[in-house]
């Protein structure tokens, strides 16, 4: 029979004495640093907007091609609905563990380290930062693609290639990273982010609807050979989970004021109801209007007034800059905490640190984006190697370990089934994504103009 001990800690201003399994107590040797960033300050509504900004980023302009084309109508619609349900469930498990053991776990790795120990702390850290880095590479590609789309609207000389626009986008992202010190400081920018999202989603939806009404019957058949369809279907499954998950829920929850779990659940309800509607709408209308010819960047498909398409692309660029900052914030938090960057954001030392360190991070991200600008492949690979393990495998197993004495036998089997299923799916998706990247890398040169 498992022994138990007690752990006293302060949560929400009150001392709690919490019963914790002995086997978990043995892992308390993991050293958890304080944070240099602001925590326990934001409302659930702001957290909900952070989550919604993440899922309604300019990535939504690629889901018609990345999800619907490989899966078709039935697979795509059912897949998106199921992905939203299982993503909400997995994220709610993580949110409910935020105060496990009487401690607030403000980082994903902190929670894993508390439950499993040092090795899991390091492994989770690595998985999460790979996930966030890959997402940010995709954001720079997106912003560069939007810049190029604006250029093509006015000039057809092809003098400026995609890598040039990716560099411009990276520079803009670097300036924003230097100007905004931490996640809570986004505030008004989240409002702008929502407006920008609505602009490109409404424009893309309206113009695609017009094109679909005027166009002849479309081809909705799933392209490729039987073998290639298997790999693209698996890759699309990875894109499905990528669409609804941030991979940094504890870091977002850390900014929320008490009651932390209750407020985070409100934010998740907001994300997976009202917040998810624009994603579904633009994904389905894009595929309906263009079928299997849907572009990886939907605004390249639509026809309409140049000024309107220009406005949508500029909105996509600006929203992408804000979204990248959200997903880069755990990296910034680690660096600021490690090197003691606290106090005024405008202090010379703090400002110079952000210019050097954050500028360097964005420069590396931009270099990778320019070298391998295959957006759909990055979505699949990110979903496979990090989103699946973090959001589904680890979440279910952590909940299983943390709550094992409170779960029924059926509940334990359910969580184990999730762990095994998503482990297999993660492995298959990684193989499929690497295959796609290798194929595209052999077709295009490095720094390709795709």
Explain what you see.
It is a single chain. The chain is built from 15 helices and two strands. The protein is mainly alpha-helical and 450 residues long. The chain has one domain: Amino acid/polyamine transporter I (Up-down Bundle), CATH 1.20.1740. A hairpin with a 2-residue loop joins strand 1 (4-11) and strand 2. Helix 5 (118-154) packs across helix 13 and helix 8 (226-244) crosses helix 15 (409-443). It is globular and about 60 Å long. The termini are far apart. Mean pLDDT is 85; it is low at 1-26. It comes from Erythranthe guttata. Residues 42-434 form the Amino acid transporter transmembrane domain. This is Amino acid transporter transmembrane domain-containing protein.
List the helices and strands and how they pair.
Blueprint: E1 4-11, E2 14-21, H1 22-25, H2 44-55, H3 63-96, H4 108-116, H5 118-154, H6 162-179, H7 188-214, H8 226-244, H9 249-253, H10 260-272, H11 277-290, H12 306-338, H13 348-371, H14 375-402, H15 409-443
Antiparallel strand pairs: 1-2
Helix pairs in contact: 2-7, 2-10, 3-8, 3-10, 3-11, 3-14, 4-5, 5-6, 5-12, 5-13, 5-14, 6-12, 6-13, 7-11, 7-12, 8-14, 8-15, 14-15
């Amino acid at each position: 029979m498992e022994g138990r001990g007690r752990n006293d800690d302060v949560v929400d201003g009150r001392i709690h004495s919490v019963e914790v399994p002995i086997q978990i107590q043995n892992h308390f040797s993991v050293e958890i640093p304080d944070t240099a960033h602001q925590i326990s300050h934001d409302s659930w509504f702001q957290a909900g907007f952070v989550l919604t900004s993440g899922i309604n980023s300019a990535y939504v302009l690629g889901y018609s091609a990345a999800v619907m084309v490989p899966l078709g109508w039935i697979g795509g619609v059912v897949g998106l609905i199921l992905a939203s349900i299982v993503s909400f469930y997995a994220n709610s498990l993580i949110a409910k563990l935020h105060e496990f053991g009487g401690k607030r776990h403000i980082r994903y790795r902190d929670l894993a380290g508390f439950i499993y120990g040092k090795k899991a702390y390091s492994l989770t850290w690595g998985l999460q930062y790979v996930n966030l880095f890959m997402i940010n590479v995709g954001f720079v590609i997106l912003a560069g693609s939007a810049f190029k789309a604006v250029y093509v609207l006015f000039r057809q000389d092809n003098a400026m290639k995609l890598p040039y626009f990716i560099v411009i986008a990276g520079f803009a992202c670097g300036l924003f990273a230097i100007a905004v010190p931490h996640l809570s400081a986004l505030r008004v920018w989240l409002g702008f982010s929502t407006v920008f999202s609505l602009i490109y989603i409404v424009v893309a939806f309206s113009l695609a609807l017009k094109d679909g009404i005027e166009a002849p019957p479309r081809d909705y058949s799933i392209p490729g050979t039987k073998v290639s369809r298997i790999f693209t279907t698996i890759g699309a499954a990875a894109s499905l989970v990528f669409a609804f998950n941030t991979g940094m829920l504890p870091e977002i929850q850390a900014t929320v004021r008490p009651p932390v779990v209750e407020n985070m659940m409100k934010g998740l309800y907001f994300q997976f109801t009202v917040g998810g509607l624009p994603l579904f709408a633009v994904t389905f209308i894009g595929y309906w209007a263009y079928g299997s010819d849907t572009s990886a960047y939907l605004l390249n498909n639509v026809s309409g007034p140049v000024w309107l398409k220009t406005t949508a692309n500029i909105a996509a660029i600006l929203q992408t800059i804000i979204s990248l900052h959200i997903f880069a914030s755990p990296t910034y938090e680690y660096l600021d905490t490690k090197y003691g960057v606290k106090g005024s954001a405008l202090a010379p030392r703090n400002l110079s640190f952000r210019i050097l360190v954050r500028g360097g991070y964005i420069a590396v991200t931009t270099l990778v984006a320019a070298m391998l600008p295959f957006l759909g492949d990055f979505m699949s690979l990110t979903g496979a190697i990090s989103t699946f393990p973090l959001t589904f495998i680890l979440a279910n197993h952590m909940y299983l370990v943390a709550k094992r004495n409170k779960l029924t036998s059926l509940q334990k089997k359910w969580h184990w089934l999730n762990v095994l299923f998503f482990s297999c799916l993660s492995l298959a998706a990684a193989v499929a994504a690497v295959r796609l990247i290798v194929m595209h890398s052999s077709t295009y040169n490095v720094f390709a103009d795709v």
